[in-house]
Design goal:
Ribosomal_uS9_CS; elongated; Ribosomal Protein S5, domain 2; 129 residues; alpha+beta; 5-stranded mixed beta sheet; Small ribosomal subunit protein uS9; 34% helix; single chain; 22% strand; Ribosomal_uS9; ribonucleoprotein
């Protein structure tokens, strides 16, 4: 099997993902998953969710680079990228990932600040006198 490439996105984070047949190693920015995410167990589970859904956690090696956003957004971008790469690799995986919502790009981003406001919607405090 050849290497499959896919891009995952979330908020302002982007993950470039390459997957190939292997032993289940996950390298992110040159570090393994435990070094990259430290003690964030729930976020680690999000990253491996597409591999668990397709039962490929010990059969596929993942190499990825992430940039932009925070570690949580980067992890979700990585999840999206892994899902897209698996779907491109095998059409049967697409049928497993789509119902779980793993192929959908989460389009929620921070709302921009408007002039005359303190934040996106917060108005300055009103003073009658």
């Amino acid at each position: 099997m050849a290497t499959v490439y896919a891009t995952g996105k979330r908020k302002t984070a982007v993950a470039k993902v390459w997957i190939k047949a292997g032993s289940g190693k996950i390298l992110v920015n040159g570090m393994d998953l435990n070094t990259w995410l430290g003690g964030h167990e729930a976020i680690k589970l999000k990253v491996v969710q597409p591999l668990l859904a397709t039962k490929q956690e010990s059969l596929i090696d993942v190499k990825a680079t992430t940039l932009g956003g925070g570690y949580s957004a980067q992890a979700e971008a990585l999840r999206h990228g892994i899902s897209r790469a698996l779907a491109a690799m095998d059409a049967d995986f697409r049928a497993m990932l789509k119902p779980k919502g793993l192929l959908t790009r989460d389009s929620r981003v921070v709302e921009r600040k408007k002039f005359g406001k303190r934040k996106a919607r917060r108005s300055p405090q009103f003073s009658k006198r």
